[in-house]
Structures are given as structure tokens and as C-alpha cells.
Amino acid sequence: MNTLRFVETLWQDLLFALRMLARQPAFALVAILTLALGIGANVAIFSVVDAVLLADLPYHEPHGLYRIWGEHRFSRQLFQKLEDRIDGVRGPSAYSPTELTLVVPSGGAEELHGASVTARHFSLLGTPPALGRGFVEADSAPGAEPVALLSHGTWQTRFGGAADIVGRKIPLSGAGAESRTVVGVMPRGHECIEGTCEVWVPLDLDPSDEHVYSEYHFLWLIGRLDPGTTPGQATAALQTVASRLRADEGLSLSEERIRAATIAPLLDTVVGPYRTRLMLLFVAVGIVLLIACANVAHLLLARCEARRREIAMRSALGARRSRLVRQLLTEGLLLAFMGSMAGVLAARGILGSLVAQLPSDMPRVDAIHLDARAIGFALLAAGVSSILFSLVPALRMSATTGENLLNAPRGSSRTGWNNWLIVAETAAAVTLVAGAGLMIRSIQLMHQVDPGFRVDGVLTLRVRAPLARYPDDAERRDYFGRVVERVGELPGVRSAAAIDRLPLSRGNTGVGLLPFGTPEPRDGVYPMANYRVVSPGYFETMGIPVRGRAFTADDRAESPGMGIVNEAAAAMLWPGEDAVGKRIAGNEEGDVWFTVVGVVPDVLQHRLNEKSRPEVYVPLSQESAFTFYIIVQAYDAAGVAPAVREAVLSVDSQVPVSDVRTMPAVIADSLSRVRFVTQLLGVFAFVALALGVIGVYGVTAYSVSRRTREIGLRLALGASRPSVVGFVMRGGLLPVAGGSLLGLLGAAWGARLLGSLLYGVGPGDPTTLAAVAATLFATASIATYVPARRAASVDPAEALRAE
After folding, report:
1. Residues 120, 122, 125, 127: is their CA dihedral positive or negative?
2. What is the rounded CA–CA span in Å between residue 266 and residue 275?
3. Helix, coil or strand: residue 131
4. Residue 135 has what pLDDT?
5. 773 near 689, Cβ under 8 Å?
6. CA pair distance 645, 661, nearest whole angstrom
7. Residue 271 CA to chain centroid, in angstroms?
8. If DSSP states are collapsed to H, E and C, what string results for 665-681?
9. What pLDDT score was predicted for residue 249?
10. pLDDT for 507-529, tens place per residue?
11. Is residue 106 pLDDT above 70, yes or no?
């Protein structure tokens, strides 16, 4: 019976709440739209956070997967030395992103994104192929038949879902093979650990090429912990094995690297670069929802004042305080439910725009969508927000007796709670706007950074020479030389060159350097530098001056080894000396790798907010690579892009061309992570500022409407209209000032969370914080001036007659 009575009462409350909202459609519409904005933005950000950070990896028992040795990569040699020697770790499996070339039947070629993996990889992930078989140990052995596994999407789109795909030989080259036999197809929905995978190939573990086998560190390692083994125990075991390998087998492992040997959850390492950024945005959009709730609370407080005689009558007729609170909470819950449903609809549009702005390297983007979890979050947000914005009005009105409410003067004004809400709104808005201001200032300073090379009028494109067509170094050198020559002859092109690693693009190749005649380091750890292969004319095309001489067409493969270093490398290897003419030792004792023929200024190769690293450049005539970026200096970089692409294909139509961008676009992409956070933080800050100003206006206007009699008396007793404007504005701006002070303190503390994203400004940058406070105070002044001016225009006689 108690349950039935509760349900009946709740139903009565809901029907009454609907009638009350229908009587005041303007109030209901404003409240619902305000909540829809706050809840919709929260649902959209939650969908991103849920898909990227919270959802499990799409593998069997994903919580048991761990990344071995964190941020460090492995050589084939080091992987095989560690394999099966780490106590408590099952596996491990090694993988590395790779690029392959597929020759299409219609002519031409396409670049496929893939991964090289060991035979244990798919069994470790717990995902067997949907068709055919997975890899076996023999597939990685020297001389084994080249094979491949296709993703379900590649099988469908490029091979038409052919039932006889298993066993078919396809013209897929790369990773040491000219063509490959398809041994299986992965199931629909299977994802690569990082990035996008259209195809998987076995990892070549041939130790015959000693340099590639032992010196080329490019592998990531994953494994599973044995039951009862903790990550701490596995980490200790890993460090013990690494120390033994250095002591007993002479592997080049520094003490610092051994101390950094850890075993961490795979999910944390995959999404780690974006965890702080996304959680920061989640907090920011949560602040927006709080401000929206505060605004609705203003509306409800004003509405409760208008309903004070109704509530007084209910109390006088015997309604208990709990019953009044429940009625008002039910009305708030109904508003929040309507706002959440409108917010879910708004979240669809917001999420579409949000996904389009995500950085290209953000993991698990394909999994972002509105689902039952997002709708559940919206309902949870509705429940929490209804309590936030309706509890204060409900408690305030129910705490006053019916007699006091009935006898209260009609012109009375009680704005204490409204003022405290304004203080909270202002503090939250200032914190958010200050964070956005610091990020915007950082972006501005980054764009002012001189990267050390020419930006305007430069076009770049990526060209990968397939192994099937160019199996040896000499042929690849000749091919890329012909491409540069052909592009350089185009009308409108001033010069052209090639480099294997584009500045400010992701990825890097490092090399250990040792001045000739210097004893080898005792720990076997050499000074490291970025390693770049460039064609003649590269420094001229990029506008980089050379002290000494640059590479020329006369530098041949048979010429003595030569190289160019940057100033950071020169200072690291020969401090206080002229590096030109110095020599770098080779791999064998008494051998010279190259002689330094030139020194160039430091350029930014990784990020605009990162200090230049030591660099060494070697000529294309003496080194080679499968992939080069063609750099084109032109009068109209974007305009010559089609002609440049056709020129590259005219040299060989079966070589894929990709990533055609101007250099300003390359720089913009390098800032994509910071720009993504800045843009969203700026949008949320603008919304928070707008809601805060609307709240200030609403409270001031409501206060004026409730104080009409008082203002009329002041004017009748001789108060000037400017003085009325002043005291109304002071009443409205006083809580704004208090909130601004709290907000600035909160911004100075909270901005420390942005430390890793800021450049050139500190978390407590006084210029930014002062500008934020001034902006908010100016907009709040306008918001209070409008109702203050209206108050000053009140006719005293009319105001007194109305009472």
C-alpha cells in the first residue's frame, strides 16, 4: 500500500509539473534549451572519452595485456634475447607499423597501412583469423615464403570478398618481399593496436644482416602476466634480465634505460598521450553544465518567488515540508529529463563536428558514436543536474512558513542565494576562460616560432619505392634522383629535393655518433642524433644556410663518406671547435664513416615547442631508403600540386604517391593535438562566459523587478537617476567581483594542469589573467547596465500606485 501511495503521489506530481510548465512555455523553453546545451556538450565529450579512454580494447581479456618497456622500442636482437626470459610474462609478441604497396589491376599502385608481427601476436590477443590461418614461427624464418593476413575491410573493398582469397598470391610488396600469399582474413572489427591496419605480415627475424638485426630499434613489445604476477614483480624481472644482458652479453643498455624498463597496461600506453587532454576537456564541459544548472536555478528561484502564495497556501492547508520539496524536485527532474532528451539530439550534431576536428593520430576514433552508455550518461547528468538546480529553491521556499510567505511584501527582494550562485558561476567561467586564454596565447607564440627552414611556397609529397621494382640501393637512388630531376623541370617550380624524414612530421630515425679517435663509451651508449638522408639541393630548397659546403651532384657513391651536422650535434661532439673537417668513426675500429663537410643551423624536426636535437645529414648518393618526401619550392605551391603528382607518376606509374601537403599544412598538422584542445576549450569558455553573463543579467533584472517599490521611493525622495543606475550596477557587480577573484585564484592553480601544453607562457601569466578578468567584468557591466537603466526610468508615481 505504501508503494502504491508513493506511485500515485509521484504521478500526481508529474501531471501537476506538466501543467505548470505548460502555463509558462517561455520559462520551460529557456530552461530546457539551457540544459540541452550543457548536457549535449557533456554527452558528446563523454562519447569520445568513453570510446578512447574507458572502453576495453577489442581483444580477449584486454585487462591482461601489457606493454613491455614502456616508451622504448626494441631491435630484433634485443627482442629475441628477452623472449621467454622474463619471469611471470607470457608471450611476448613484437609488432611494428609498416607500409606496403599494392599494385592494382587497372594500373598504378596504392599504399596500404599495415603491421609486421611475430607468430604469437594474434594468439596473444585472442583473435584468430575468420578465414584461413594465422602466422606460424616458420613464416618469420629466413627464406620463408612471404605471406600476409588481410583485414576484413581490405578483403571486401580491394578483393571483392572473394571466397578463394586464401592461398591467392597478390602483388603486395614491402617489408622485404615483392609479392605475398594470403594465408588468412581477420574477422570484422579486429583493430590494430595502434593506427590503422589493412594488412599484417610476419616479422622478419633473420640475423644475417647484423646491422639491421641489432641496431635498428623499431619494435613494440606486448605480453600477458601469469596469474598471481603483479606489474611490479614483472617490472623487477624485466630489469633483472636487462642488467644480465648488458653484463653477460655486452648489449648497449644504459643504466637510465634499464631503470626505465617497466611493464604497464597496454590501454594506458596506447591512449596515454591523449588521457590528460581528454580529461581536461571533460572537466571543462562539466563546468559548462554546472553553469547551466546555476542559470536554471536562477530561473527556478524567480519562479518560486512568483509562486510564493501558492506554496504558502499548500503549507497552510497542511502540506509537510518534505511534500513541498518533493513536488519542486519533481518539477526540476521533469525539466532535466526534457533537457537531457534535447541534449542527446544536440549531441549528435556536436559529436559529428567534434570527430571531424580530432587529430589524425588519436587512437580508436572509429569506435566513437552515441550508444546506450552515452544515453545512460545523459540520464545520469539529468538526475544530478536536477538536484543541483532545484534543491536550493525547494529548500528555500519550503523552509518558510505559510504565514511568512503570505505576509511578505510584494515588492520584497531576497537575492542572497542568487548572489552566491553568481559568485560560483563567475568563478567557474573565469577559470575556464583563463585556461582557454593561456592555450590561445601558446598557439599564437608557437606560430611565431621560426622553424629554421622555408615555409611559404613549399610543397611536400610522400613517395615510396616498392621493393619489387627497386630491389637494391643503387636502383632506388637512381629512381629518386630521376623523380627530383623531373619535378625540378616543371614550369613554376624553382627547385626540388628529397629527404627521408619530413621536418615536423611524426617518426624519427636515430643514430649513435662517436668522433673518430675517441675511445668507445664504457657502457656502450653512444651520443645520439637524428639521422636524415637528403638529396643535393635540399638545403637550398628549404632555405637552410650551410657553413662549409652542401651536397652536390658530383658526390658519388664511391666518393669518400661525407656528412653535414647541425650546430647542436657539433656542440655535442666537438664543443668549442669547428666541426668542418672532423670525422665520425664507423662500426669497425680504425674505420671512418664520414667526414663533416658542412654545418647547418638547428631546425625544428619534431615539434614547434620542442628544442632542436642533434642532427646528421648524409647524401642520397651514399645512403638509401624506401620512402622519401619530395620537397618542392614553387611560386604557387598549392597550384603546382597536380602537375608535381603527374610528374612523379610519369617516372613510374606503379609507385604510390601520398600525403600531398603544403608546408604550412604540415606545420598546422604538427600542432593538431594542441589546437584540438585549444579550439574545444575556447568554445566551452565562450559558452561559459555567455551563460555567466546571461545569469548576471537575469539576476539583476529579477532584482529590479522585485524592488520596483523601493526604487520608486528613492526617486520620489530625490535620488538622481544616475545614482539609481550606480547602486543597481554595484549590487549586480559585487558578486561578479568576488567570483572573479576566486576564479583567478582557481585559474592560477588549475592552469598548472595545462603545463605540458603551454609554450611561452606560465600557468599564472598575469597578462592573460588580467585580460580575462577585464573581459568578464566589462561584459558583466553591460549585462547589469541594461536592467539598471530600465530601473532608473521607473515613474515614481506609477511604482507607488502599483503597490
Report:
1. negative
2. 13
3. strand
4. 94
5. no
6. 11
7. 9
8. HHHHHHCHHHHHHHHHH
9. 72
10. 778 888 888 888 877 666 778 89
11. no
